[in-house]
Design brief:
With about 200 residues, the protein is α+β, with helices and mostly antiparallel strands. It has three domains: about 60 residues, OB fold (Dihydrolipoamide Acetyltransferase, E2P) (Beta Barrel), CATH 2.40.50.140; about 70 residues, 5' to 3' exonuclease, C-terminal subdomain (DNA polymerase, domain 1, Orthogonal Bundle), CATH 1.10.150; about 50 residues, Helicase, Ruva Protein, domain 3 (Orthogonal Bundle), CATH 1.10.8. About 45% of the residues lie in helices and about 20% in strands. A five-stranded mixed barrel has the order 1-2-3-5-4. The chain is globular, with a radius of gyration of 18 Å.
């Protein structure tokens, strides 16, 4: 199995990143939080988990080992596949997942698309004794919380008729203006201005 990938970031899409490793472009499926930390043309090292299916080999990339560990652990619950595990980490940080499961917090888990009340209860029941306690790290939740604005701005631009490549460039152009509490409306306007200049 492929434990991690290190290489130059060749491309970033809404749901994946392509890392060039030894002349080969490897596509890694990533959460918005992980993608927010990558820059095209820069070197990156991502822990990875390979999911092998009859008809596909899919490589998932993570911001750190903790995210990878939680991704692999939640898949041991019945009914949780790699896409749902990734959705959990897109909505909640690794510690957020641990806290929700440890506290029997069905409401928080049902915020994840694809998890209903019964699914959340089953996940809590099956993982409560194995998920461990929150690590107390602040960095991961902040990174996860900062990411959704990027997706919202990009989707807004695509909805206005721009292609995904131009939308991603515009999002990168306004990323420095986001600050701690991003205002999606003003960032979208700034992205539109940067596109009109180009």
């Amino acid at each position: 199995m492929i434990a991690h990938v290190r290489g130059k970031v060749a491309a970033i899409t809404l749901s994946s990143a392509v890392l060039e490793v030894g002349g080969v472009g490897l596509e890694l499926m990533c959460t918005p939080g992980t993608l927010a930390g990558l820059r095209t043309g820069h070197e990156a090292t991502l822990p990875t988990s390979m999911v092998v299916r009859e008809d596909s080999l899919t490589l998932f990339g993570f911001a750190d080992e903790d995210e990878k560990t939680v991704f692999e652990l939640v898949q041991t619950a019945s009914g949780v596949g790699p896409k749902l595990a990734q959705a959990m980490l897109a909505v909640l940080s690794p510690d957020g997942v641990r806290t929700a499961i440890a506290a029997d917090d069905v409401k928080t888990l049902t915020k994840v698309p694809g998890i209903g009340q019964k699914g959340a209860q089953r996940i809590i029941l099956e993982l409560k004794d194995r998920i461990g306690s929150p690590s107390g790290r602040i960095a991961a939740p902040l990174a996860a919380a900062a990411a959704p604005w990027r997706d919202q701005v990009a989707q807004g631009l695509i909805g206005l008729g721009y292609n995904a490549k131009d939308a991603d460039k515009a999002v990168d152009a306004v990323a420095d203006d986001a600050g701690d509490l991003p205002d999606v409306g003003s960032l979208l306007r700034a992205a539109l201005r940067s596109l009109s200049k180009a």
